[in-house]
Amino acid sequence: MQRQAITIRDVAREAGVSVATVSRALNGHANVAEPVRRLVHEVAQRLRYSPHGAARSLSSRSTQTIGVVLPDLHGEFFSELIRGIGAGARARRRHMLLSSYHGDREQQAAALRAMRGRVDGLLVMSPFADQPGFLEENLPPLPTVLVNTQQAEVAWPAFEIDNHAGAVAMTNHLLSLGHRRIAFIAGPAHNYDARERLRGFREAIAAHPGAQGSEYEGEFDEASGHRAGRRILAGDARPDAVFAANDMMALGCLYAFAQAGVRVPQDIALAGFDDIPLARFVHPSLTTMRVSIAQLGGRAVERLLDQIETGADANGPASASDADRQVMVPELVVRASCGGPEHPASGTEPRENTKA
């Protein structure tokens, strides 16, 4: 026999209070005495009562849920980002509805439209936001914060990494160690982070007479880094150093070198970008640009929840102020893989700047 679902009336009867008191207690209203609140929560937990989300949404116009739309869920970057978003949401007693679209424009448009009525606000990472009209046409009229997303016009609050400056800093570091032939393993062409890191690498190489840069395709995963590493070793002129546009590709490249008996850093120096947790535990440990990915997600969700709770920007794009574009500057972390003296970054968290 199927067990009958517990209702709010069951909780009220067991606790000896009204249905309205149960509703106020479970929704965090201030006008409930603390002993009553504790009693209601204890009874609800004991009875395994779960509020009906759709009904609560209709009555309070709140789903207590945020939507997160990302291009992918694979890899340590996205797992760290989701970890930061999830921790921030839980701290504010919010749930998270997650969707990915694997870089497909129409799938992302559909994912954004599907969030309407299901969430109170959106965190979005999109490679298509620089296409005029894309967000305006597909975003529901909800508070929205963009993460690592280039906008055609600054209309939504955004949190991003200064990928260009990070790539310049890493390339300059490799050049300062005397490396003059540097290979770059790029990320996917449609990815904003990848384009900015490639732009920084090219500018740093161009600014150093005598430096030679070569470029190899990658997809921000270990397999493409491994393929690029094998192509690099198969070339006529072996580089002094390899700079991979993210740590996952750097680790794949490191494995390709190890398979071929090429020593890092004695034969070729190697560096990555992101400082994922695994970067410090491989051998040799990986020189990289530190980005606090979880912190990026946490700060973005804090900004979104502030919008939701104040009712700001609830009807679509607004004229975002300069302070609404928060740029996190990565820090160089020198480890064994680049061949220079090892030292940690100057701090445990990236600096934060504001760009106009």
Helix content: 25-40%
- Please trace the helix and strand order, writing H or E for each element: HHHHEHEHEHEEHEHEHEHEEHEEE
CATH topology of the largest domain: Rossmann fold
The radius of gyration computed from the alpha-carbon positions, rounded to a whole number of angstroms, is 24 Å
CATH architecture of the largest domain: 3-Layer(aba) Sandwich
Q: What sort of overall outline do the alpha carbons produce when their principal axes are compared?
A: elongated
- List the domain count as a whole number: 3
CATH homologous superfamily assignment of the largest domain: Response regulator
Global mean pLDDT:
86
- How far the N terminus sits from the C terminus, by CA atoms, comes to 63 Å
The chain-level structural class is alpha/beta
